[in-house]
Amino acid sequence: MSSGPAIKVENISKKFTLQRSIEDVEGNYTNTLWALRDVSFEIKKGESVALIGPNGSGKSTLLQILAGVTKPTSGRVEIDGKVASILDIGAGFHPELSGRENVFLNGQILGFTKKEIQAKYDEIVEFSGVRNFIDEPGKNYSKGMYLRLAFSIMAHLDFDVYLLDEVLGVGDVGFRSKCFDKIERLIAEGGKSFLIISHDLNEISEICDKAFLLEEGKVSDSMTINEALYTYTNTGEKLVQELPDFIDDVTVEFTGEDGRVKTNFINTEPVTICVNNSFNESGNNVRVGIRLTDKLNNVVFNASPVLSREGIKEVDFQGKKQILVTIPPNLLNAGFFSIDVVYFDENKVLYELKKVSTFTVSLDMTFKGRGIVGESGPLKPYLDWEVK
Amino acid sequence: MKRIITSEPDSLIQYLKKIWEYRSLVMVFARRDLKVKYAQTLLGLGWTIIQPLTGLFIFTFFFGYILNLNAQSLPFPLYVLSGLLGWNYFSYIVFQGIGGVQESGHFIRKVYFPKSLLPLSKVLVGLVELSVSFLLLIPLLMWYGEGLSWRIIFIPVLLLFNTLIALFVVFLVTSFSYRLRDLYHLVPFVMYFGIWITPVFFTIDVLPEQLHFLWFLNPMASVVEGWRWCLFSDWAFNIRFLPALLCIIPAFLFSVVLYSKAESKFSDFA
Question: At A260, which CATH number?
């Protein structure tokens, strides 16, 4: 195999004709929809790349073009190697045929001979975990069982490029981690490339190391997966949040050791979070807390000055302007974090303001304790160990 | 293996190459169709024999005993059943071929393969049904004391023309009907009409002299007559059937070009 890129996309555009006219950005009525506009990118051999974007941004159309099922309106694609595509769960399966027959049908549709499939048949069925039902007709399979078979077929036959459109989501937890593991091993084998569409950002951040954002048919430059997730979760549909009536204004700032306001931190320095509230008269008995969330919108922790080791500690927030708290150094991992501000009283949460402000943490490249353990997870603590 | 995808549809040569590359799928689809057709039945493939066998009995009984007609020198049941060989094969490929593209819509949007493989696979299934009908006809021939003509060696040539005509219709119709399905709904009407200008049930003398040209314009009429010529030693083949038959070769090639241009758009309308 040559050393060029696995996938090279040059100025791909795709036009669809709508049944009824819509108003475009300039206010003109048109019945053409550009699902993709002038999309160009490259994926190298051995890379696993995510394609991220909101619904209707053209992700699936792009994958359909790469899989060859639809033609671009203009542009050019070059793919080096054998392509496996799962654009839909169970496509290429026939509901009246048994699981066994479907394995062969699918494999042959994907371009393998009966002999090649026969050689891998046992492995495929073993991996899929549906051996007991392999002679049942496909129509009695659940979506998860279809996925298991479809993925097993792909993973065990020898492809060079894998295109996955939102398919791993239907697998159960056990099978998904098995898939991730298999994908990682396929990547480690070398030369195999993955292009994955998924709305499960956790899944993406686990498998992919690069990403492209797609929005309204336009593609971004190549980004690292962290950059892409940051951009994606911070753009898109904005949350419209009204302030609760007991608050006039709220802002959140971050300061470093020197007291200067900033948003980019290194993991070896402390991060001071500063919540500026201005309560009005109706704000009696309202308590304030913060919630730290990571790049995937997973909650890292909830905290409030009211909550202490000794139990509930009465704090009078009324008339106070600032609440400050410092996250110690060497706790947060690289990534970006958002602060929600939570208001509550003795019994319940009164109001939550989501993503009031955001900061990023990057790893200190000079720090000796950087280590080789992966960058996943929101925390990177240095603990006291004992090895006996 | 490097694959280039552009907005241009494949050239005819590229397209034929792709069909060759994916040729094993024809067999795969055909086997799938046969398996699926008789899935969840006790008799399974036995049904492929039962259907033509029923036809055989009905036609022999009605036309042979009740109506007791003769067509030229042939007993009427033999006339009809030999006529149905070519016609049923033709109509099977037309209906299944056109329908096959339609019903595989979901599949076409998700997996790439040259779409002409679908009608081609129907040809194989059609051949299976044709062979069964043909084999069932032979004992009947013996029973009526009709020997098989030596001209059966020409059956492969005839079969080729029979297939080309069917595929011509399939390619022509699907090249347009993928977008606007009206044509697809028109096909049954054309087929019902077509059987009356094809000598399946009637002999040529049912039509007034002025309308005889209709038979000779219809390539399926030539094929059906051709079948009888191949089977029965004393059956004469009217040479005026030949032009329509030969015209089908360029017509078929034209339909292939048309289809190869259209098929890249199937998935956008499927």
Answer: 2.70.50.60
